[in-house]
Amino acid sequence: QTGYTEPWLELYSMEWGLREDLRDCVVAAAPYGGPIALLRNSRRDKTPSARPLLEIYSASGLLLASVPWKSGQLVHLGWTAGEDLLCIQEDGTVLVYNLFCEFKRHFSMGNEVLQNHVLEAQVFHTEFGTGVAILTGALRFSLATNIDDLKLRRLPEVPGLQKPPPCWTVLAQDRVTMVLLAMGQELFLLDNTSCSVLVSPAGPSGVPGAPRGARAVLRLDGLGSTWDGGSCPCPWMGWNCWDLMSLPTQPIPRSRCWKGSWKEIMEAVGCCQVLAVGPGATPRLEQPPHPRFVPIPAEASQEIFRIASMAPGALLLEAQKEYEAASFGKCFLDKFPPEGFVRMCQDLRVLNAIRDYQIGIPLTFTQYKQLTIEVLLDRLVLRRLYPLAIRICEFLRLPEMQGVSRILAHWACYKVQQKDKSDEEVAQAINQKLGDTAGISYSDIATRAYDCGRAELAIKLLEYEPRSGEQVPLLLKMKRSKLALGKAIESGDTDLVYTVVLHLKNELNRGSFFMTLQNQPVALSLYRQFCRHQERETLKDLYNQDDNHQELGNLHVLGGYCQRRIEGRVAALQNALDEFYKAKNDFAAKATEEQIKLLRLQRHLQEELDKPYLDLSLHDTVATLILDGHHKRAEQLYRDFRIPDKRYWWLKINALATRGDWEEMEKFSKSKKSPIGYLPFVEVAVKHHNRYEAKKYAPRVPPEQRVKAFVLVGDLEQAAEAAIERKNEAEMSLVLSRCSPGTDGALAERLNRARAQLLKK
């Protein structure tokens, strides 16, 4: 705390050289050592002159940028948390500039504000973001708690309010935004639904913690409005939060209210909001640390060097001496962790670097910790102080992604906006600076170049992007689809190729699209696969354009079997037959012709026999006819479609065995010499558990298969006889493996003797 008589120490001798008194300007100073915006208040300026300048200075008074004000009547200036300048006009339009006076966007506070105009305005900050509050000509308050998600809210009417209140502010508490205002000797609080009286003429009983008979005095954070329970014509508002202290009653002298000088304004910045003072007490003010001024006694140098002085300056000097002793002595301590000491030294060096007047960001240690190093780096980058930001990153040894890489990317995005060099020079300069630095996205930089109207520079920058998946989206956005297709194919990512191909399909006419694909075989192949499943008619057009009759024939075959009606299927196969003839593929043409013939025959059989034959293969059709006893019809198919003899005999004996028609099977075996031999007859009969029928065919089996046949039918005597007769050790061993010691002992002994004699020879 400090009394009013205590002087302030200026950190900077302001370099701006203003030509006008600040009382004739609209002023906004950003918190946390932020920039200062100035604009002549034309409502006070009655002399005709050139357009006023909107000027933005650093906290040390160095001019950052200026631009002639060409818009409407300005009411208020304020800064967002991201250091964008909000210019609130009389018609409710809010213009947004960056700290280099570059216009970003605008928005409106609604029709009601437009109709009634803006009398006063404030910019405030909550957990939701930066907000704007408006007092309209109808003496109603409207506000938006987040300008990035604009939702306007009209607050309740203040009873008895006939003119603008002498002071008001916006409060945020428990996710609720309210307006606190003073009118005469009353203090009102407006929320979403009601207007509450906190202090009335009867006394400040509504003020928490105020003593009986006390008189409330308001001191507003920002540029120094004061309300002492009566009327006070202080024009500056800027509350962010408020508090109360309990002291005896006595109003703050009106000499402490804002007079318009710059020194008075700066003295007011950072003061607390609500005080209560009493008779005989010296008015004192809660004073949080402020980035620009530090209160010290007037006889500072004397108090610093006075023996046994406990003045702050003397203590600071002593601390500096202690620091040197601590820095030296810590090296001799075994269990002293040096991290805290080192970190504090680093923080102080960073604070000292940014406090330099050429940088002009004077932060206290508390502010620095609240702001965080990441936000500080962002603000340095925003001011285009890239070398300093990089040096701080390197000094603090921040990770690449958190520090240097991010700053270099910002630098590159700024570089592409400079149009005094060619695209080739800018691209090379960026690549030489960034190289293959981890965390750098050339596609993001190229996007920035494209947004700035430098498409060719964007393409050159994309050449340095190693990830094709990052190149392609921007190339498509730039309508460089053919180049995007080439990059997608180079990546080997089929999904990426499909994305570009489908984009091309929607962008180009059909002919140009097909011609583009013709020059890219990989893309054409992938598109054909897509069409085969999704767009067969398009695939047909592709094959027609290429005169690819073979693939057209295949496509007709596939399409034919999607037809439910037999007539449609036959017609599609007929088209396929024509295409195969054009392709000079005789085998495919013959197979298709026979399929058409089979379909027609199956339809005839189905109609005549009243049994489903359609969609059966030729073999299944023959087998089904045999199973149903239509042997002559099966024979006819055998001859008409030239089924090989062996295949037909296998089909027939399996079908007859399945049907249990053993008589027909025996008759068939004697019809002519079997092309497959007679062992299959034995195997089929055994498979269907009929050894009796199988034994009929075993003697007809040739000698080399006879042992196997007799073993299958269980006649081990005949199998042993055949094996001994053939003098085949393997066959003897096969029979022995099937002999049972209890019942086949004699047979086994006979086989063993025959084997022994065979081995002697």
UniProtKB/TrEMBL annotation:
<dbReference type="GO" id="GO:0016197">
    <property type="term" value="P:endosomal transport"/>
</dbReference>
<keyword id="KW-0472">Membrane</keyword>
<dbReference type="GO" id="GO:0033263">
    <property type="term" value="C:CORVET complex"/>
</dbReference>
<comment type="subunit">
    <text>Core component of at least two putative endosomal tethering complexes, the homotypic fusion and vacuole protein sorting (HOPS) complex and the class C core vacuole/endosome tethering (CORVET) complex. Their common core is composed of the class C Vps proteins VPS11, VPS16, VPS18 and VPS33A, which in HOPS further associates with VPS39 and VPS41 and in CORVET with VPS8 and TGFBRAP1. Interacts with RAB5C. Interacts with STX17, MON1B. Associates with adapter protein complex 3 (AP-3) and clathrin:AP-3 complexes.</text>
</comment>
<dbReference type="InterPro" id="IPR038132">
    <property type="entry name" value="Vps16_C_sf"/>
</dbReference>
<dbReference type="InterPro" id="IPR006925">
    <property type="entry name" value="Vps16_C"/>
</dbReference>
<keyword id="KW-0653">Protein transport</keyword>
<dbReference type="GO" id="GO:0006886">
    <property type="term" value="P:intracellular protein transport"/>
</dbReference>
<dbReference type="Pfam" id="PF04840">
    <property type="entry name" value="Vps16_C"/>
</dbReference>
<dbReference type="GO" id="GO:0031902">
    <property type="term" value="C:late endosome membrane"/>
</dbReference>
<feature type="domain" description="Vps16 C-terminal">
    <location>
        <begin position="440"/>
        <end position="757"/>
    </location>
</feature>
<feature type="domain" description="Vps16 N-terminal">
    <location>
        <begin position="10"/>
        <end position="195"/>
    </location>
</feature>
<comment type="similarity">
    <text>Belongs to the VPS16 family.</text>
</comment>
<keyword id="KW-0458">Lysosome</keyword>
<dbReference type="GO" id="GO:0003779">
    <property type="term" value="F:actin binding"/>
</dbReference>
<keyword id="KW-0813">Transport</keyword>
<dbReference type="GO" id="GO:0005765">
    <property type="term" value="C:lysosomal membrane"/>
</dbReference>
<dbReference type="GO" id="GO:0030897">
    <property type="term" value="C:HOPS complex"/>
</dbReference>
<comment type="function">
    <text>Plays a role in vesicle-mediated protein trafficking to lysosomal compartments including the endocytic membrane transport and autophagic pathways. Believed to act as a core component of the putative HOPS and CORVET endosomal tethering complexes.</text>
</comment>
<dbReference type="Pfam" id="PF04841">
    <property type="entry name" value="Vps16_N"/>
</dbReference>
<keyword id="KW-0967">Endosome</keyword>
<dbReference type="GO" id="GO:0042144">
    <property type="term" value="P:vacuole fusion, non-autophagic"/>
</dbReference>
<dbReference type="InterPro" id="IPR006926">
    <property type="entry name" value="Vps16_N"/>
</dbReference>
<dbReference type="InterPro" id="IPR016534">
    <property type="entry name" value="VPS16"/>
</dbReference>
<protein>
    <recommendedName>
        <fullName>Vacuolar protein sorting-associated protein 16 homolog</fullName>
    </recommendedName>
</protein>
